[in-house]
């Protein structure tokens, strides 16, 4: 499996990271190095093996489905790059 | 009294209780040491006001006879832990200026026990790295040097600032986190002790997430006894982390009996790499001999899927990272890129993340995105999860056969020079974790113990791997190894 420049461009887009056109060939090469390394896994026989979902066999705790905190609008917005009138502000989303 | 910063946690605890000195004096000694150690770039945000306030409160508690083990002891906190009102950046430019409104569970536990926070410690960006070279703060530098050379060496990573600070006596101990070896490798590189507990022992709440199924926090200390003391304070069930184990936490220090007679120690043959340096192989053999002399039984074991651990890790960790790091989008906290006229929300995401994430983080997020993308999910991600099951089973089989702990080298080499492992060849850097990464994949506890010096005068460590939830037994075996190794070397001060 080899990654070409188009795939590298698509992956960068999916990851929402801007990569300039002239940086794509080097990026594709780095992906290929990492994927070549990962490729070793194809040697392993995993017939009938379950994919791991939890490394420690324990039942997840459950709690009451109730409100445990709230009323901290100011705290939540305190680190926002742009907060206005009690909301996170972002550039226009709807075309 | 001078040199209070050189004390271990246990020595300082005992001295405080006897009234030999105060927590304020200990704190002053550490802050002075930090001030003089700018060249190490270990502490990246100093918090002297908080430290003195906590130290005074601790002195009052000690005077009143209410002093838990960690009370009054000055420590450093890895920048990955959210600390209320104190910059928490995970060494990334994308979290520039972020000051959490909350405290992580682990720092809450440490502070409730009376610990004193000196500041935040350098690390690889989002804990992704093995040399502390991906940090937005610049490299942390090891206090150790090769013989008389002045080449700057790596303290290891990702907990490189923690390792440099503890090794150089800037603090009595530090917190670290370990996703593939990030506590144990830097501990080995700097001649200190570092333990990654069983997955689920320490709450991950308030610890900036890298790969959630692998991440665990743990202490980095000057001795195994100190690791036992600090780990006990850090452990415990937390409703805010759904993977936190609801199990009683033993008094780990009380389990350091020094008696390991009859313990069965496994030596995995697959860890004997073809190109292993002579001195690492020798250190390993001598470690086994020392445990044998202390009464343990040494047996050769096989962990057949060892070879596939790193490739498995480099699917699972980036996959989880790509998902966890999706939250850094310039909306709720941290950096937001300046937009040009007419640019919308997608440009904001893409530019923010391109500006905020460093190269290695971008690379891993994109590899993770790729292995999770339609058409490749089964071939890469599911495949890796199946191999992970097999890697864990290797350990289960060995423990079922009566092995109590496994002895391996901690790292494939002593510390290397900053810049010596090329940034362009990520695989070369990844190989640093060849002995440690299996432990994260299997969720087991692992500890690195300093065991000797290389021909160039650098520390080398051995790793012991224990059974799930048996940190007490593991620490006791590590304690014996430490005593038999008699490692007392300290870096000569040049900074």
From TrEMBL, chain A:
Annotated Pfam families: GatC (PF02686)
Reactions listed under catalytic activity: L-aspartyl-tRNA(Asn) + L-glutamine + ATP + H2O = L-asparaginyl-tRNA(Asn) + L-glutamate + ADP + phosphate + 2 H(+); L-glutamyl-tRNA(Gln) + L-glutamine + ATP + H2O = L-glutaminyl-tRNA(Gln) + L-glutamate + ADP + phosphate + H(+)
Gene Ontology MF terms in the entry: asparaginyl-tRNA synthase (glutamine-hydrolyzing) activity; ATP binding; glutaminyl-tRNA synthase (glutamine-hydrolyzing) activity; transferase activity
An individual GO BP term: translation
Nucleotide-binding listed as a keyword: yes
Catalytic activity, EC: 6.3.5.-
The entry's keywords: ATP-binding, Ligase, Nucleotide-binding, Protein biosynthesis, Transferase
InterPro entries noted in UniProt: Asp/Glu-ADT_sf_sub_c (IPR036113), GatC (IPR003837)
UniProt-listed Gene3D superfamilies: Glu-tRNAGln amidotransferase C subunit, N-terminal domain (1.10.20.60)
Keyword Nucleotide-binding: yes
Family: Belongs to the GatC family.
Xref: PANTHER family: GLUTAMYL-TRNA(GLN) AMIDOTRANSFERASE SUBUNIT C, MITOCHONDRIAL (PTHR15004:SF0)
Function recorded in the entry: Allows the formation of correctly charged Asn-tRNA(Asn) or Gln-tRNA(Gln) through the transamidation of misacylated Asp-tRNA(Asn) or Glu-tRNA(Gln) in organisms which lack either or both of asparaginyl-tRNA or glutaminyl-tRNA synthetases. The reaction takes place in the presence of glutamine and ATP through an activated phospho-Asp-tRNA(Asn) or phospho-Glu-tRNA(Gln).
Subunit structure: Heterotrimer of A, B and C subunits.
This protein's name: Aspartyl/glutamyl-tRNA(Asn/Gln) amidotransferase subunit C
Species of the source: Celeribacter neptunius
This protein's encoding gene: gatC
From TrEMBL, chain B:
The protein's enzyme class: ligase
Gene Ontology biological process terms, A to Z: translation
Entry keyword annotation includes Disulfide bond: no
Pfam families membership: Amidase
Keywords: ATP-binding, Ligase, Nucleotide-binding, Protein biosynthesis, Transferase
Region entry Disordered, spans: 137-160
InterPro entries: Amidase, Amidase_CS, Amidase_dom, AS_sf, GatA
Reactions it catalyzes: L-glutamyl-tRNA(Gln) + L-glutamine + ATP + H2O = L-glutaminyl-tRNA(Gln) + L-glutamate + ADP + phosphate + H(+)
Catalytic residues identified in the record: 78, 158, 182
Annotated GO CC locations: glutamyl-tRNA(Gln) amidotransferase complex
GO molecular function terms listed in the Swiss-Prot or TrEMBL record: ATP binding; glutaminyl-tRNA synthase (glutamine-hydrolyzing) activity; transferase activity
Entry EC no(s): 6.3.5.7
Residue ranges of every copy of the Amidase domain listed in the record: 25-475
Claim: Membrane is one of the keywords in the record: no
SUPFAM superfamilies, A to Z: Amidase signature (AS) enzymes (SSF75304)
Description of how the protein assembles with itself and partners: Heterotrimer of A, B and C subunits.
Family: Belongs to the amidase family. GatA subfamily.
Entry-linked PANTHER family: GLUTAMYL-TRNA(GLN) AMIDOTRANSFERASE SUBUNIT A, TRANSAMIDASE
Record's function text: Allows the formation of correctly charged Gln-tRNA(Gln) through the transamidation of misacylated Glu-tRNA(Gln) in organisms which lack glutaminyl-tRNA synthetase. The reaction takes place in the presence of glutamine and ATP through an activated gamma-phospho-Glu-tRNA(Gln).
Protein name: Glutamyl-tRNA(Gln) amidotransferase subunit A
Species this chain originates from: Celeribacter neptunius
């Amino acid at each position: 499996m080899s990654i070409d420049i188009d795939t590298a461009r698509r992956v960068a887009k999916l990851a929402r990271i801007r990569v300039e056109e002239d940086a794509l060939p080097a990026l594709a090469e780095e992906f290929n190095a990492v994927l070549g390394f990962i490729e070793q896994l194809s040697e392993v026989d995993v017939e009938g093996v379950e994919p791991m979902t939890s490394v420690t066999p324990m039942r997840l705790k459950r709690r009451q489905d109730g409100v445990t905190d709230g009323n901290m609008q100011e705290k939540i917005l305190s680190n926002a790059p742009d907060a206005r009138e009690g909301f996170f502000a972002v550039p226009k989303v709807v075309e | 009294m001078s040199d209070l910063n050189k004390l271990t946690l246990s020595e300082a605890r005992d001295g405080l209780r006897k009234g030999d000195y105060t927590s304020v004096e200990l704190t002053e000694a550490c802050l002075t040491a930090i001030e003089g150690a700018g060249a190490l770039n270990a502490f990246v945000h100093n918090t002297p006001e908080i430290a003195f306030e906590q130290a005074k409160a601790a002195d009052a508690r000690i005077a009143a006879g209410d002093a838990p083990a960690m009370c009054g002891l000055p420590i450093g906190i890895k920048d990955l832990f959210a600390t209320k009102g104190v910059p928490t950046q995970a060494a990334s430019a994308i979290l520039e200026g972020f000051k959490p409104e909350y405290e992580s569970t682990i720092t809450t536990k440490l502070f409730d026990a009376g610990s004193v926070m000196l500041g935040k410690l350098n690390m690889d960006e989002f804990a992704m790295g093995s040399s502390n070279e991906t940090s937005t703060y610049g490299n942390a530098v090891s206090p150790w040097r090769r013989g008389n050379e002045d080449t700057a060496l790596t303290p290891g990573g990702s907990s490189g600032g923690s390792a440099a600070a503890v090794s150089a006596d800037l603090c009595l101990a530090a917190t670290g986190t370990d996703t593939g070896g990030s506590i144990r490798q830097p501990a080995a590189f700097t001649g200190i002790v570092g333990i990654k507990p069983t997955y689920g022992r320490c709450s991950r709440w308030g610890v900036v997430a890298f790969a959630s199924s692998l991440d665990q926090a743990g202490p980095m200390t000057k001795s195994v006894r100190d690791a036992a003391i600090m780990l006990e304070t850090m452990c415990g069930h937390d409703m805010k982390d759904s993977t936190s184990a609801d199990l009683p936490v033993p008094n780990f220090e009380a389990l350091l009996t020094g008696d390991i007679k009859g313990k069965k120690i496994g030596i995995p043959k697959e860890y004997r790499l073809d190109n292993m340096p002579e001195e690492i192989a020798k250190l390993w053999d001598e470690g086994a001999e020392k445990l044998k002399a202390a009464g343990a039984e040494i047996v050769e074991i096989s962990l057949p899927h060892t070879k596939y651990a790193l490739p498995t890790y480099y699917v699972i960790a980036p996959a989880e990272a790509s998902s966890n790091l999706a939250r850094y989008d310039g909306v709720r906290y941290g950096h937001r890129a300046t937009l040009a006229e007419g640019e919308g929300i997608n440009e904001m995401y893409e530019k923010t993340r391109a500006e905020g994430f460093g190269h290695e983080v971008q690379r891993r997020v994109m590899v993770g995105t790729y292995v999770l993308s339609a058409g490749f999910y089964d071939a890469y991600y599911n495949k890796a999860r199946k191999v992970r099951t097999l890697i864990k089973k290797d350990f289960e089989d060995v423990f079922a056969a009566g092995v109590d702990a496994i002895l391996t080298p901690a790292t494939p080499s002593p510390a290397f020079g900053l810049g010596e492992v090329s940034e362009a060849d990520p695989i070369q850097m990844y190989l640093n974790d060849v002995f440690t990464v299996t432990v994260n994949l299997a969720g087991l506890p692992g500890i690195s113990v300093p065991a000797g010096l290389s021909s160039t005068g650098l520390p080398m460590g051995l790793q012991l791997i224990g059974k799930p939830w048996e940190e007490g037994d593991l620490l006791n075996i590590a304690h014996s190894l430490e005593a038999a190794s008699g490692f007392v070397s300290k870096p000569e001060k040049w900074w």
